[in-house]
């Protein structure tokens, strides 16, 4: 995990500071939409993720994880279905070849919204894709219990601890991130 974290930090895919968001502010930012610009980082994430894929017939990529899903699909040979991320057409926003009865793994960029994840799992089920698990690039500490198994390559609370310990993140800033996570994602 340490090497992945350093790659995310070096490329700016993970940043710490004070960032404006719709609901106020956050003490960190994930720029996973930029992942395709860093093929070495994407490759390292895929290499780390492949052993956790398991026995599934389909991969389903959340809208924030299409490049991650494509990489997993290319590396494993498992067909990919992806979400365009629209709420207007909740059943038909999944694109790809699928039919009823396929065990599937959901690929996500970040586990930051249980509601959105549940909605996507529900959409997949409506079209016959049975999501058996989730593999995510980053777990922001939100999912304390989930209806499916979850595997995250990078766990943000652990990252903060590691960075503070290694003097890569000031202790006060680390505390601010921990407090923000505890307020917004109580465990």
Total discrete domains = 1
Under CATH at level 1, the class stands as: Alpha Beta
Rounded to an integer, what's the Rg over CA atoms? 17 Å
Shape: globular
Task: Provide the CATH architecture.
Answer: 3-Layer(aba) Sandwich
Tell me the series of helices and strands, N- to C-terminal. Answer: HEEHEHEEEHEEHH
Q: What is CATH's topology name?
A: Rossmann fold
Number of strands: 8
Describe the structure.
This protein is an alpha/beta fold. It has a single domain, classed as Rossmann fold (3-Layer(aba) Sandwich). 37% of the residues lie in helices and 28% in strands. The chain has helices at residues 2-11, 39-49, 66-76, 114-126, 156-165, 171-184, and strands spanning 14-21, 24-30, 58-61, 80-83, 94-95, 102-111, 129-139, 149-155. The strands form two sheets. Strands 5-4-3-6-7-8 form a six-stranded mixed beta sheet. Strands 1-2 form a two-stranded antiparallel ribbon. Helix 4 (114-126) links the parallel strand 6 and strand 7. Helix 5 runs antiparallel to helix 6 (171-184). The model has no long low-confidence stretch (mean pLDDT 87).
How is this fold's topology laid out?
Elements: H1 2-11, E1 14-21, E2 24-30, H2 39-49, E3 58-61, H3 66-76, E4 80-83, E5 94-95, E6 102-111, H4 114-126, E7 129-139, E8 149-155, H5 156-165, H6 171-184
Parallel strand pairs: 3-4, 3-6, 6-7, 7-8
Antiparallel strand pairs: 1-2, 4-5
Short structural description:
With 187 residues, this protein is an alpha/beta fold. The protein has helices at 2-11, 39-49, 66-76, 114-126, 156-165, 171-184, and strands at 14-21, 24-30, 58-61, 80-83, 94-95, 102-111, 129-139, 149-155.
């Amino acid at each position: 995990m340490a090497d992945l974290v350093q790659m995310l930090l070096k490329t700016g895919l993970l940043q710490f500071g004070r960032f404006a968001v719709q609901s106020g502010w956050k003490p960190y930012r994930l720029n996973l939409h930029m992942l395709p610009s860093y093929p070495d980082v994407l490759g390292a994430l895929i290499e780390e993720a492949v052993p956790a894929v398991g026995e599934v017939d389909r991969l389903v990529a959340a809208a924030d994880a299409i490049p991650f899903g494509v990489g997993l699909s290319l590396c494993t040979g498992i067909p990919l279905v992806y979400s365009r991320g629209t709420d207007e057409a909740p059943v038909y926003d999944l694109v790809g070849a699928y039919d009823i009865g396929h065990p599937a793994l959901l690929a996500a960029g970040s586990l930051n919204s249980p509601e959105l994840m549940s909605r996507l799992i529900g959409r997949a089920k409506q079209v016959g894709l049975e999501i058996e698990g989730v593999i995510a690039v980053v777990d922001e500490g939100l999912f304390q219990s989930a209806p499916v198994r979850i595997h995250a390559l990078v766990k943000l609370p652990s990252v903060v601890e590691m960075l503070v310990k290694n003097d890569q993140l000031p202790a006060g800033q680390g505390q601010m991130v921990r407090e923000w996570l505890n307020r917004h994602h109580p465990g």
